[in-house]
Amino acid sequence: MPTDEYTDRAYVSRYTAADFGLQVMVQGVPGDADADVTVALLHDDDTQTAVFSRTADHPGVGQYTVRLSSKETAEPGPYVLVWTYTVATSEEEWRYWLEVGKASPEYDRLADTMKGVIEQTWNRFSDLFDFATEGPHLQTYVQSNFGRNRLAQLLRIAVGRLNTAAQPYQTYTIDGDGGANFPVQQWGSLLESALYVECLRHLMRSYVEQPEVQSGSGVSRLDRRDYMDRWGVILQGEQEVLKSQLDTFKIAHMGLGTARVLVSGGAYGRWGPTRLPLSEAARPRWLTRFY
Which residue of 96, 119, 141, 160 has the smallest Cβ count within 10 Å? Predict the structure, then answer.
């Protein structure tokens, strides 16, 4: 069992090389440690077995990085990165928790901004009751592949739906193949809502074949068919949020300049172009320590 089973963890797909960094701050500005910084990758279980321990790279003032190779991420499971160093003769330690998940090629090929959208959406499923550590109940079944790779596939569907849901027709993509990259920095909140709705639809499809309870003197099966109805209630509320965001998104892309809303309601009534706040989806894996 992980030593900190319920902590949030950075995600790395199996067999994927991944970079992590530590930023050391001394008196409010970047500053170097007294000597080399050592990084160890440990299995986050009772044994705390080390995968490696080596000196971190030092690309800039106060900056220390380590790169996990595909060999070092070959075994799925919980891990912890342990950074040890000395600043002003004081011995310091910083820990960063990771999860190496199953191979996710669709997820791996996404740009960091799109991975940020995946992570923001995944967070909405990470505290559900059924699964021991995270996610919906269907994760416990062998047939299920619900994870970040499935979300990456649903992300493509979500962008396609945004392109075609209303006029004007658009050609945004998640990878620039055949069209422009979706503007995540400006419309990231909309894309997260669209992906979340696609995930809810996927969960409802997944629960369609859940059996009814069959009680008797023999084996009784749990009734989980009403999960579809419960997720449907959530879907209905999320679709209302998405619709209001989508209206703003489409009007902003009509090329009409700055629209004016007339007292009588005008062409769009109460819908005028607005700008959503910048998405905070893209989160670099940098850790900062202050002294």
Answer: 141
Q: Any idea where the domains of the chain sit in the sequence? A: 10-103, 105-211+222-283
Q: Residue 55's beta-bridge partner residues?
A: 38
In tens, the pLDDT along 17-41 reads: 999 999 999 988 999 999 999 999 9
**221-258 pLDDT tens trace:** 666 667 778 788 888 888 888 888 888 888 888 876 55
Chain-centre distance of CA 21, in angstroms? 19
Assign domain 10-103 one CATH number from 3.40.50.300, 2.60.40.10, 3.30.1490.100, 3.30.300.180.
Answer: 2.60.40.10
Smallest CA-to-CA distance from 84 within 151, 28, 39 is with 39
Two tokens, residue 57? 């790279």
pTM: 0.60
pLDDT for 130 equals: 60
Q: How far apart are CA 113 and CA 182, in angstroms?
A: 10
Q: How many CB atoms lie within 10 A of CB 239?
A: 14
Give dist(CA 134, CA 91) in Å, integer: 35
Bridge partners, 85 (sequence order): 92
Residue 218: what pLDDT? 67
Note the residue count of the chain.
291
Please give the Cα distance from 250 to 267 (Å, whole number).
14
Respond yes or no on whether the N-terminal peptide bond of residue 168 is cis (omega within 30° of 0).
yes
Torsion from C-alpha of 158, 137, 222, 141, nearest 10 degrees: 90
pLDDT at residue 132 is higher than 70? no
DSSP code string of 219-287? ------TTHHHHHHHHHHHHHHHHHHHHHHHHHHTS---S----TT-TTTTT-----PPPP------EE
